[in-house]
User: Which sequence fits this backbone?
């Protein structure tokens, strides 16, 4: 585990750097992420890494796309793991570039374990996860002293059997904000289960598509009409689902005055 941690050293040939690219806006990259990006010999990157960030790579950097869509994996995870190790052992500076944060629904820990088990040094560079960055750009605070005392991040991907097995009874607190990643296709199940668990059907809810991008789309409603809003506004992945009273903390006028938010 000594190869994972705080580090300022150079990116050395034969190493892998698992770097969080954030949700898309290149201004949200950390200085450390930018430093590793500029040194890469080869990048193995995901679907959610923006063109703006890809443009920061060195011109000579080799690019391998291994993006995943729901139920559609271009390259299996085992093959991605092996790619990282193989290219590192060829003496390259291998950049594994992931949208958001590698350790938040990004399989970064699986990749790091595999890399280290094969004798390759691994840098971990955190990135801004979509839940915090995209909600901020949408004018939605995840917590507020008088409104929300906790926040939960959940993956909305269903299992192979079509089930979404979650501890629904723990998600019925009116002072809890819930953010679902990858949940658009399973939204009807999510809504039904939350209401069955005791969440008020009039709980404020929001959809954030392509958060932090120039064409970010924010749609607000309630649990009861969220599925209809997905259809009427043609919301597609990548999108976040945010549920909780924090959605109404700012008025429309206040959000406009924040400077980065334009209400629909």
Assistant:
């Amino acid at each position: 585990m000594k190869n994972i941690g705080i580090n300022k050293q150079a990116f050395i040939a034969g190493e892998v750097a698992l770097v969080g690219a954030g949700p898309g806006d290149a201004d949200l990259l950390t200085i450390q992420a930018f430093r590793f990006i500029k040194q890469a010999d080869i990048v193995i990157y995901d679907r959610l890494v923006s063109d703006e960030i890809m443009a920061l790579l060195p011109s000579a950097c080799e690019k391998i796309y291994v993006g995943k869509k729901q139920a559609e994996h271009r390259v299996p995870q085992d093959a991605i793991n092996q790619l990282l190790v193989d290219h590192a052992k060829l003496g390259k500076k291998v950049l594994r570039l992931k949208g958001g944060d590698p350790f938040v629904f990004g399989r970064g820990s699986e990749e790091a374990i595999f890399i280290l088990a094969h004798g390759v040094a691994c840098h971990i560079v955190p990135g801004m996860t979509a839940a915090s960055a995209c909600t901020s750009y949408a004018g939605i605070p995840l917590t507020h002293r008088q409104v929300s005392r906790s926040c939960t991040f959940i993956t909305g991907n269903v299992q192979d059997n079509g089930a979404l097995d979650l501890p629904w009874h723990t998600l019925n607190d009116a002072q809890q904000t819930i953010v679902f990643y990858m949940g658009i296709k399973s939204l009807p199940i999510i809504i039904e289960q939350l209401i069955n668990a005791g969440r008020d059907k009039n709980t404020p809810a929001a959809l954030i598509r392509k958060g932090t991008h120039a064409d970010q789309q924010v749609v607000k409603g309630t649990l009861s009409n969220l599925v209809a809003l997905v259809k009427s506004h043609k919301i597609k992945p990548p999108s976040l689902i945010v549920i909780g009273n924090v959605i109404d903390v700012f008025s429309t006028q206040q959000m406009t005055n924040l400077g980065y938010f334009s209400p629909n």
